[in-house]
Amino acid sequence: MDKHEHLEEVQKKAEVLIEALPYIRKFNRKVIVVKYGGSAMENDELKKNVIKDVTLLKLVGFKPIIVHGGGKEINRWVSRVNRESNFINGLRETDEDMMEIVEMVLSKVNKSLVNMIQELGVKAIGISGKDGGMLKAEKMLSEGKDIGFVGEIKDVDPKILFNLLDNDFLPVVAPTGFDENFNTFNINADDAACAIAKAVNADKLVFLTDVEGLYRNYPDENSFVSRICVSEADELLRSGNINGGMLPKLRNCIDAIQGGDNLENHTNGDRKQGVGRVHILDGRIPHCLLLEIFTNEGIGTAIIRDEEVGTKL
Length: 313
Prior knowledge:
Elements: H1 3-27, E1 31-36, H2 44-59, E2 63-68, H3 71-80, E3 87-88, E4 91-92, H4 96-119, E5 124-128, E6 135-142, E7 145-156, H5 159-166, E8 170-174, E9 176-178, E10 184-187, H6 189-199, E11 204-209, E12 214-215, E13 224-225, E14 227-229, H7 230-239, H8 246-258, E15 277-282, H9 288-293, E16 301-304
Parallel strand pairs: 1-2, 1-11, 2-8, 5-8, 7-10, 11-15, 14-16
Antiparallel strand pairs: 3-4, 6-7, 9-10, 12-13, 15-16
Helix pairs in contact: 3-4, 6-8, 7-8
C-alpha cells in the first residue's frame, strides 16, 4: 500500500468516527438492553464480534445489559444425557430434571460470556433472574396444558441491575426466575429481555436474530422495513402478514415501547416510561450492533415511538 492509499484508508476511518459522534453524544450514559441469541451464539467468530460490539458500547459511554438464551446448547446437553426434548407450541416441556439441565447450561453460557467480556478489559457480572429477586414468575400454560417449569414474568425488580450499572459493571443475565414458593422457572429470553428493558426504562432494546429484520410480506425483499413507528407496527401485527417466530418478537417490541409501568426513571430524564426504541438485527452480520447504532442508515429494523417520526437519531 502506497502513502496515498494509506491516507485514504485512514480518512475513511476518521469519517466513520465522525458519523458515530452524534450517536455517542446522544446515548452517553443511557441504557441499552441486548437480547443475545440465535446463530450469533453458535458461531465462535460471530460470538466474539457481538461481545466486542457490546464492550465497545460500554467503553464509549453506553450502559449495556446482555440478556442471553441458550436453546441450542441446552439441546446438546439434553442429548448427552440421553434425553429427548419435547416441544409443545414451541415451548420446551420442562420437568424437574430438565429444569436442572436448563439451569446448568444457562449458567455455563452466562459465565463464558462474562469471561469473554472481561478479557476485553470491561468488568462484567453474570446473574440469573433469580438473583436479587429480579424476575418473579408464575407457571405458564400452553393452550391449557401444563408443560412444567416454564414461566411467564409477573414482576421485575431492577434494583440489582441499577446497582451493577451504577458501579460500572456490565450485567449478563440468564433468563430464569422463581415464583412465590421459590420454584425455579425457565423463561423465554425474548420475554425476559423485554421485561428487563421496560423495568430499567432502557433507551434501546436490541434483538439479535437470524433474519435481516422486519418484512411487511416475508420473504419479499422489497417489503423490508428499515424504520417503522409503533402504531404502524401494531397495524402490521394485526394485518395477519406477520407469522412464525417474528410474531411474538414483534409483540414484544410493541409492548416494550408502550410499556413501563412500575418503574422509577433512573437514567432517562423526563422521557416517557417504556423503551425508547427497539431494533431487530441480523446477528449473523459481523458488527451488526455498531452498524445499526452508529451509522445514519443502519442495517436492521428500528421501531420508534410515534412522536419520533421525522427525527434522524
